[in-house]
């Protein structure tokens, strides 16, 4: 029996063999003091709070042999994949490509572009570098997922209303069945997070489903119990 998550707007069924956990941009540049997010004036502790839940989501994915994809918003050292408009936005004194406390901001290979210590990818997991907010823009993600037979995505990460929402909308338009794992995603602005959850599930799940991690854990536990042969 497939796990069925008690989700909004209605139950979400998925087969772990055809499901990927996509963790969006859990990078030092967004979560740590001195990073891009902090230099934009944000309180990074609002994002740090979801790290334990993200660890639990990764543990669940690994235990059930689901595909794991860690996305990373980062540019090449020459910024050839960074549109000038993105670099200029905000008129920051220390913006994308500039040297900040965590190295060059949002540049691949720099300390700030790396994942936070608690959420390091394991060998065999996919690290997907992306130049945009959405994980499908200018990456091979769609081809990679289709080649692996992935049809369902469990999505978490930061920030809910920017890279998480953009990725979920891109995935939805490409036909993937997406569940936003609510407590594994966060915004610097909690009311934006709450609004995105509502937007996703509105109108019959116009972008997909939403549920807390515990509901995903319960669904997997329930399916495993069903699969176990009854004691003689
Ligand atoms: C932002 C992201 N907020 N990962 N990036 O610039 O959401």
Put the structure in a nutshell:
The protein is of the alpha/beta class and 232 residues long.
What are the salient characteristics of this protein?
single chain, 232 residues, alpha/beta, Rossmann fold, 6-stranded parallel sheet, binds dicarbonimidic diamide, hydrolase activity, Isochorismatase-like_hydrls, Isochorismatase-like_dom, Isochorismatase hydrolase
Description:
- This protein is of the alpha/beta class.
- The protein has a single domain (14-118, 127-226), classed as Rossmann fold (3-Layer(aba) Sandwich).
- The protein is 35% helix and 20% strand.
- The protein has helices at 28-31, 36-39, 45-48, 51-63, 84-88, 141-147, 160-173, 190-205, 213-227, and strands at 4-5, 12-13, 19-24, 67-73, 99-100, 103-104, 126-130, 152-158, 177-186, 209-211.
- Strands 7-4-3-8-9-10 form a 6-stranded parallel beta sheet, with helices on both faces. Strands 1-2 form a two-stranded antiparallel sheet. A two-stranded antiparallel sheet has the order 5-6.
- Strand 1 (4-5) and strand 2 (12-13) form a beta hairpin.
- The longest helix has 16 residues, at 190-205.
- The radius of gyration is 18 Å and the shape is globular.
- 42% of the residues are buried.
- The model has no long low-confidence stretch (mean pLDDT 97).
């Amino acid at each position: 029996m497939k796990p069925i998550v008690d989700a909004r707007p209605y139950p979400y069924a998925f087969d772990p063999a055809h499901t990927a956990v996509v963790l969006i941009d859990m990078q030092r540049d967004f979560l740590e003091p001195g990073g891009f997010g902090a230099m934009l004036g944000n309180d990074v502790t609002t994002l740090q709070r979801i790290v334990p839940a993200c660890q639990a989501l990764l543990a669940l994915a690994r235990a059930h042999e689901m595909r794991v994809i860690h996305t990373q918003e980062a540019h090449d050292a020459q910024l050839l994949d960074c549109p000038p408009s993105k670099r200029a936005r905000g008129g920051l004194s220390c913006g994308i490509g500039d040297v900040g406390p965590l190295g060059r901001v949002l540049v691949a290979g720099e300390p700030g572009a790396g994942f936070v210590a608690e959420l390091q990818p394991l060998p065999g997991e996919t690290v997907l570098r992306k130049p945009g907010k959405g994980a499908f823009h200018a990456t091979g993600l769609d081809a990679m997922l289709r080649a692996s037979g992935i049809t369902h995505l469990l999505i978490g990460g930061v920030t809910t209303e920017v890279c998480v929402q953009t990725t979920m909308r891109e995935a939805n338009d490409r036909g993937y069945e997406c569940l936003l794992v609510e407590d594994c995603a966060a915004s610097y602005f909690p009311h934006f997070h709450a609004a995105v959850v509502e937007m996703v599930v509105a109108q019959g799940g116009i972008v997909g489903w939403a549920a807390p991690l515990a509901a995903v854990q319960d669904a997997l536990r329930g399916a495993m119990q069903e699969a176990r042969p009854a004691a003689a």
